[in-house]
Amino acid sequence: MRCAYVEPNTGVRGLASNLNFIEPDQNVVKNYAGCGEMFIPYGAISSTQTALIAADLAVGYLEGKLTESKKVSWKGDSADAEREGLNLTPRYQTFTSSLKKQPLRHPLCDICQPKEFITYQSKCGKRLYLPQTLHQKLCTYRQEEPASVESAGLLIGYYNRNGEVLIDTFTTPKASDQRTRTTFKLDSQAHQAEIEKAYTASEQLLGYVGTWHTHPQDVPRPSSPDKTDWRTHEQDNSDRPLFFIVVGIKTTSVYTLEKGKVIELSIVQEEHC
Ligand SMILES: [Zn+2]
Ligand SMILES: [Zn+2]
Q1: All domains of the chain, ordered by start, with CATH?
Q2: DSSP H stretches of helix in the chain
Q3: Which-ligand-closest: CA of 211?
Q4: Is residue 150 annotated as a catalytic residue, yes or no?
Q5: 221 CA to middle of ligand 2, Å?
Q6: What mean pLDDT comes out for the span 212-221?
Q7: By Cβ atoms counted within 10 A, which residue in 44, 78, 121, 206 is the most buried?
Q8: Strand, coil or helix: what is 160?
Q9: Cα–Cα distance between 134 and 262 in angstroms, integer?
Q10: In the predicted model, what is the mean pLDDT of residues 188-204?
Q11: Is it the case that residue 219 has pLDDT exceeding 90?
């Protein structure tokens, strides 16, 4: 529930829900007959529809079909609100997932956020926060066996106000990827679809922030195809820094690009936030 009360621009907890379709601090209450007659002018159809969704969620939970918090919204016509001169939120304008059950999880929520990060920093100050739990998950793809093939995926995260990146999750190998001991080729459609899903479910907060892949080397070094590939990604996303993780058998390396040059980041500290 508290994930619904995180202010998306600052990450600070507020009184207005980030799920609202109408901007906060507006006078939406009607008062027809004086004291005790104040109400919010929703019609019976709107409140019945909302009650049905709430009941459906409750039944789903009781039947054990819902195991994590979900949000369901439905977007009606804005004509009535506009006639009243009410301002609608950016969420209303961009919302396209009516009646879909989506995870009720806000990446900036201080309660749900991972508590332990590995922090990587480049010489010119670019920072990447990788939650310990995600690093452990990446390490399960290490090519420790002589026959194990390369794994790869896309990094999903968000840019905080200082332009630093916090990794939220990553896409994992698909059956349709092509993988050998020393090469991989992503099924880009399948991976991209997960990015888009995360983007919509997070109200445009989460997106593509880089890639990861494994190397059959103890200490991984990027190959020249890696560097060429990263430069292409950088050129396609020139407005923001991207990060590239290479998981070796013993260590993990993180890179970024600065003006086409591949820069390795170093671990600055183990943070306990
Ligand atoms: Zn939360
Ligand atoms: Zn590589």
Answers
A1: 2-103 (no CATH), 116-272 (3.40.140.10)
A2: 44-62, 79-83, 90-94, 132-139, 188-201, 224-236
A3: 2
A4: yes
A5: 7
A6: 94
A7: 206
A8: coil
A9: 23
A10: 91
A11: yes
